[in-house]
Amino acid sequence: MSRRTFVTVGAGQTAAVAARNLRRHGFDGRIVLIGDEPHPPYQRPPLSKEFLAGTENEEGLWILPPKWLQDNDVEIITDTTVVRVDAAARAVEFSGGAGLQADSVLFATGGAPRRLPVDGPRPDLVHYLRTLDDAARLAPVLTPGRRLAIIGAGFIGLEIAATAAAAGVEVTVLEAVPVPLARVVGPAMGEAVCRLHRDNGVDIRAGVQLAGVRTAADGVVIDIAGAAAPLEADAVVVGIGIIPNTAVAAASGLWVDDGIVVDALGRTAVPGVFAAGDAARRYSPRAGRHLRLEHFDNASRQGVAVANAMLGREAPSDDPLWFWSDQYGRNIQFVGTASGTPVIRGNRDEFDFTGFYLENDTVCGAFAIDRGEDVTAARELLGRGVDAAALLDEDTDLWDLVYADEDEQVRA
Ligand SMILES: Cc1cc2nc3c(=O)[nH]c(=O)nc-3n(C[C@H](O)[C@H](O)[C@H](O)COP(=O)(O)OP(=O)(O)OC[C@H]3O[C@@H](n4cnc5c(N)ncnc54)[C@H](O)[C@@H]3O)c2cc1C
User: Fold this and answer.
1) Which of 65, 151, 240, 378 has the fewest CB atoms within 10 Å, i.e. the most exposed one?
2) Domain FAD/NAD(P)-binding: where (predicted)?
3) By three-state DSSP, how is residue 13 classified?
4) Reduced to 3 states, what is the DSSP secondary structure of residue 220?
5) Would you say the CB of residue 130 lies under 6 angstroms from ligand 1?
6) How far is the CA of 375 from the centre of ligand 1 (A)?
7) Distance between start and end Cα atoms, the chain
8) Element holding 76 (H helix, E strand)
9) Each residue of 240-254: pLDDT tens digit?
10) Ligand 1: does its nearest atom lie under 6 Å from the Cβ of 82?
11) Which domains does the chain have, with CATH numbers?
């Protein structure tokens, strides 16, 4: 039995996937996941969707089933905060003084919601959504007729809006930028998502500036710059992004610059110390720069890459950005980058379409509603020149475009 010990700081998506892959690839040392939450690693995406809607329970979110943990001898220490890692010695220190000696350490600390100052007597009416406990606290608020204000129309804010609206809640979303999601998916696709919400009765007010948020005895009052009257609601959810959890890495002497800076394999400058997931800013050869991404697929793939790197296998993951979102029973997917103007295949009015982002007829990315298969094909077409007219023609099988080069080679 190898005596090596692998410790993760944080026990979320990345840590769980890294542990699973270490075992899968034959690592027979000790694996310890240390998390400050009271739960074993769980999936966060359902927190704003099925779990919030009450159609999924806590056990359904667990990433590593109890039997797998037992069979694979993986230890999870919950309710425990790591305060520092002596990176050179790889000594992991917990709050309260205890600690662990490790051979390899993975910082998989994720991020924490950006906070908004809110005065007033009822802080309990102010919600954030990052953890299972946050979701459990928010779920009872979603009752028919309740008025919910959501500050921030990013994906999480919009998913909460969709879940709340489906539960009969009166939802108002306040967003600072003129077109929600435009930074990520471009204005045209952002507009399409907005329309989806408005069609479902959500009041989206974009391009508004907040003058202040406060709680009163029985509700929340939001002052909007230039508005005749404040917005009043029974509760508010603040969804204005996350800040990567990097304080412990910084206190441990690692290089932090909007994320823990790592190479393409997830390695920090200190041998045996890795970082991955939402907290890491990894070098992407594809992009030619460091990127910090806040999506499930990235967290999972980086978890695999770190497990490989730890075992001395150089298998960097540099896949294009891909993520999904579910809103109003519709599946939204995005791959690549939102460069150029999207051209539409399908029916945008009926929310059954794919927008292909083209630059000089080269595919840069795709955004789709209820067309996951198109996104899978688009992923294969990224960086390739296409005939835009063929792309948009619903009679064209996208896979014919994907395999066109191969077919030509066979013919030649
Ligand atoms: C509500 C919600 C919905 C989402 N929906 C989608 C979606 O539809 N599609 C998608 O692609 N992505 C989605 N995401 C994003 C995705 O869940 C994250 O990208 C992913 O969870 C990141 O994994 P991670 O391991 O980096 O961080 P996390 O899963 O956040 O895990 C980090 C863990 O480390 C703990 N920790 C931090 N510091 C310490 C410390 N010092 N000591 C001990 N423990 C510590 C944290 O408390 C946390 O438990 C969603 C996220 C949320 C919150």
Assistant:
1) 65
2) 7-303
3) helix
4) strand
5) yes
6) 24
7) 55
8) strand 74-77
9) 999 999 999 999 999
10) yes
11) 5-112+243-310 (3.50.50.60), 115-240 (3.50.50.60), 329-411 (3.30.390.30)
